[in-house]
Amino acid sequence: MIYADNAATTKMSEAAIDTMISLLGEAWGNPSSLYMHGQKAKEVLEKAREDVAAVIGAEPREITFTSGGSEADNQAIRSAAELGRKKGKMHIISTAFEHHAVLHTLEKLKSEGFEITLLDVHENGLIIPAEVEAAIREDTCLVTIMYANNEIGTIQPIREIGAICRAKGVLFHTDAVQAMGHIPVNVAEDNIDLLSASGHKFHGPKGVGFLYAKKGIRLSNLIEGGAQERGKRAGTENVPGIAAMAEALKEAAAHMEENAAHQKAMRDRLIEGLKQIPHSALNGDAVRRLPGNVNFCFEGIEGESLLLLLDDKGIQASSGSACTSGSLDPSHVLLAIGRVHDVAHGSLRLSIGEDITEAEVDEIISSVKEVVEYLRGFSPIWRDLMEGKKEFIL
Ligand SMILES: *Cc1c(COP(=O)(O)O)cnc(C)c1O
């Protein structure tokens, strides 16, 4: 069995599991209580906050723990929008290939009177900073652009975009869920005002994430209630989960260089192998992409059948984001980079882990080759392409 869907979720690390299990027993108190058990939980919570902050170059009080990436995205964007509304600035800039946690929040804001500009994503899956600059207006309150894309893995020029926003006095949020723990992220060096991250994308637990908000930025509450998280996120904290996330993040940061070097070598081997399949194409820039991300389109086949047959061969992959699998719409990310519907349907995302071996990569390559050939054998689209009734795109 080869798990190649790490962009959907990762397996918890041993250290994160150990931390979580031991704290379920040891730090069960309510961190808001003043007696001993409460204070033990409080200590664990604040240590986790320090650890997370240290990894991204922030101060502990700039970290708010959330239930994951989606909540952090929602809260970051809502907060910036509320601040904008107060100043009469109701224009937001984003891109067409953001995660739905961002896109759907923006749609809601649109219905509340905000104007949204979605920048074009270029064919290589990258945003051009000068185009962000050109889109900024007097009434722009927020630019929100993801650090790395969850489907095609392209890494955006975040530092440059952040510098532009800072110079123009516009808040800058980045959904760094896919980047965190995999490539260096530093909120100070990268000129980031607001950032979202999620534990389960870097070998921490699910249902835990964090929001970084640069000091001075007033967050709006999504959840009203008690005064937890400096009054910005009510609800008794998931102490063991938060501590396990911090443990996983520290571990990922400590091994980032060696992990990335190995993954990049495996990624490039996989890309080279899959390129040999006729009428196929890599989606997104070959170099400016996450160390573990490979995403291909194969002409004349349908992604869902490809996934099912690969699963039969013990290879677990995805056609795009987990959130859209099960729907027949082609990925909004692939459409955003200009893939036409027919081609976007035949997509495959392989997000490999840190511990993948060369033999496993070779097994993936031969299985994909076999399955693509098999499916093309009875695909009417492929027959039309071969008979010249339709033109090849790839
Ligand atoms: C997974 C993911 C999210 C959502 O995170 P959850 O913790 O699952 O809510 C948001 N953005 C991106 C880019 C993601 O990959």
Distance between the termini: 31 Å
Order of helices and strands: EHHEHEHEHEHEEEHHEEHEHHEHH
Any idea what the CATH superfamily of the largest domain is called?
Answer: Type I PLP-dependent aspartate aminotransferase-like (Major domain)
Give the radius of gyration.
22 Å
What is the strand content? Answer: 5-15%
Q: Name the average pLDDT.
A: 95
Low-confidence stretches: 322-326
Task: Tell me which ligands are bound.
Answer: pyridoxal-5'-phosphate
Work out the helix count: 13
CATH topology annotation of the largest domain:
Aspartate Aminotransferase, domain 2
Which sequence of strands runs across the widest sheet?
2-8-7-6-5-3-4
Biggest sheet, open or closed, and with what strands and sense?
7 strands, mixed
Number of strands: 12
- What gross morphology would you assign? globular
CATH class of the largest domain: Alpha Beta
- Alpha-beta classification: alpha/beta
Approximate helicity band:
40-55%
As for the number of domains, it is 2
Under the CATH scheme, the architecture of the largest domain is 3-Layer(aba) Sandwich
